[in-house]
# Entry
Amino acid sequence: MKDKLGWIEEELDRLKAAGLYTTIRTLNSPQGAWLEVDGRRVLNFCSNNYLGLANHPRLVAKTKEAIDRYGVGPGAVRTIAGTMTLHIELERRLAEFKGAEAAISFQSGYNANLATIPAITGKEDLIISDELNHASIIDGVRLSKASRAVYKHRDTDSLRQVLQENSGKYRRTIVISDGVFSMDGDIAPLDKIVQLAKEFNAITMVDDAHGEGVLGRGGRGIVDYFGLHGQVDIEVGTMSKAFGVVGGYVAGDHRIVEWLHQRGRPFLFSSAMTVPDTAACLASVEMLSESTELVDRLWDNARYFQTAMRDLGFDTGHTETPITPVMLGDEKLAQTFSRRLYEEGVFGTAIAYPTVPKGMARIRVMISAAHTQEDLNQGLAIFSQVGRELGVIR
Ligand SMILES: *Cc1c(COP(=O)(O)O)cnc(C)c1O
# Structure
């Protein structure tokens, strides 16, 4: 009889041969500038722990306190018996931090997109998406019955053309973009997108996963960065990156939030954020509301590292944020580069197709406020050594 699952081995072998097989490493330490990975201490250049909050004492303390008071599990979905005062408090503080009318939390940023996009669109509507939008937006769009169109990456002429071509054909039009694009670190032209959306009466939605805690005053995000308060209808955020925990949210008009309470499927059909997650997120928002210190340090570190990398001769693409792509092109080269970095004590993952287009493989360095200058210098020295060894720089 034919092996029903034999095809998986063949597919996996194909991935391995093409340098596209993902090796998953296991951490045996908290997140931080340094990690213990598979029994070795390595410099962490690849997590989204932008502000070093993932193991911050204040988050840990607040979480312990909350566990003592509320236990760990929410016990239900939000709409049945899973809404705790912690959730309400987190949502209130998030809205305040973002300068938005209201906020609603979800179990993850991914879920926030899956909840929102199908809830606000139906088959009479059109969703217009940047061609490089995150997979969670793409999946949210797939779950909607709306028609869809893409515009060229960050290209507002292309967006205008799509808006024009479709003007008057749909009940509602929604323009969705990542705020910061996670693989290149470039920023969406949100000011121009908002202008165009106004002109064509389209709803605007931005997924600020990599801008949250990074861009704007004290990390208030891309809307704050562009001074667009009250002009972006839906801001999706994640608490899994700079906030150092896990969870997602939508901030915006109170009607959007109220609608998602009624129609956001991951809100209705998947249990609430747990007590520890919610409490830790609350501590993150409190810390960011109080001080810009961590965000300032993140940017100082990013500028320092990126300048030094360019001086060494590396191509860091067109990043405008602490995300630092080290462009290598070839998938195999990127894998070898990553392996050699690792052997030398730097944990920097190779990112290749299908996460980025074929032939655009890279090491993506994620700079954090947790890094000291000594850490960065050590990383730079190893990048320089491996870069020369593999003929990437001279
Ligand atoms: C990381 C990311 C997400 C997913 O966030 P999670 O909270 O990890 O689910 C969604 N959108 C974008 C743009 C992201 O970069």
User: Anything to note?
Assistant: The mean pLDDT is 96.
